[in-house]
Amino acid sequence: MTNIKTFHTGMIETNTYLITDEKTKEMAIVDPASYQQSIVDEIEKNGGKLSLILLTHGHYDHIGGVADFKKKFPKAEIYICEKDKICLTDDNYNLSSKMFNRKFPHFSANLIKEGETLRLGETVIKFIETPGHTTGSGCFIFDNIIISGDTLFLESCGRTDFPNSSTKDIIRSLVRLSQIEGEYRVYPGHGPATELSHEKKYNPYMNISYEDIY
């Protein structure tokens, strides 16, 4: 089992999540928009075993703090979908130059793809690709939790007006999420957490097909 804590980081208050495997106290940080001392304090309070830095996609407001966290915790392994690799070195694709005319430190990462799993202590974290907001957007699934990045929000979804976005793809990704059986707590990249059952019922994007709206 895991414990998950939410921090609001960066210029537009990205939801950054700190996951702790309760038995081993190993930790993972998801989508650190900026380096924040409160997160460092929480990690060190629990033994300082930051093992993973997980990225749901490569936009600046989800990767801006990665280089600094890696410097502070050099043993932590960084993972991002292979299809968003370009965001790590191209400031037009990660939007840092477009949105704020500001560049973030580049870094390298391990590449992950559909269906692969990672271990956080005794917790198995599965990665599924959910393209649309970016080509390489994805969700991390473990226990009864889905960390959805900017794919799925409370009764909404991520924007698709960026260079590597696709409305067609995000609709297909949301329909795919709607087909997951069982109840899951959904932790999005922005805004409040929600339940998968709530989204299946009330999210207007989860019950349509691309052909329905185009």
Relative helix content: 10-25%
The overall pLDDT average reads: 93
Q: Architecture, CATH level 2? A: 4-Layer Sandwich
CATH class: Alpha Beta
- Our measurement of the CA-to-CA distance between the termini, rounded to an integer number of angstroms, reads 43 Å
| Main sheet overview | 6 strands, mixed
Weakly predicted, low-confidence segments = none
Instruction: Write the CATH fold name.
Output: Metallo-beta-lactamase, Chain A
CATH homologous superfamily grouping: Ribonuclease Z/Hydroxyacylglutathione hydrolase-like
Tell me the β content: 25-35%
**Total domains, how many?**
1
- Class based on secondary structure composition and strand pairing: alpha/beta
Beta strand count: 14
Q: Could you state the order of secondary-structure elements as H and E?
A: EEEHEHHEHEEEEEEEHEEHH
Gyration radius, in Å:
16 Å
Question: TL;DR?
Answer:
With 214 residues, the chain is an alpha/beta fold. It is built from seven helices and 14 strands. It has a single domain (2-213), classed as Metallo-beta-lactamase, Chain A (4-Layer Sandwich), CATH 3.60.15.
Structural notes for this entry:
The termini are far apart. Strands 1-2-3-4-5-6 form a six-stranded mixed β-sheet, with helices on one face. The model has no long low-confidence stretch (mean pLDDT 93). It has helices spanning 37-45, 60-63, 66-72, 96-100, 167-178, 196-202, 210-213, and strands at residues 2-9, 14-21, 27-30, 50-54, 77-81, 110-112, 117-120, 123-129, 138-142, 145-149, 152-153, 156-157, 185-188, 194-195. The longest helix is centred in the last third of the chain and has 12 residues, at 167-178. The protein has 214 residues and is an alpha/beta fold. The protein is globular. β1 and β2 form a beta hairpin. Helices cover 22% and strands 30% of the residues. It has a single domain (2-213), classed as Metallo-beta-lactamase, Chain A (4-Layer Sandwich).
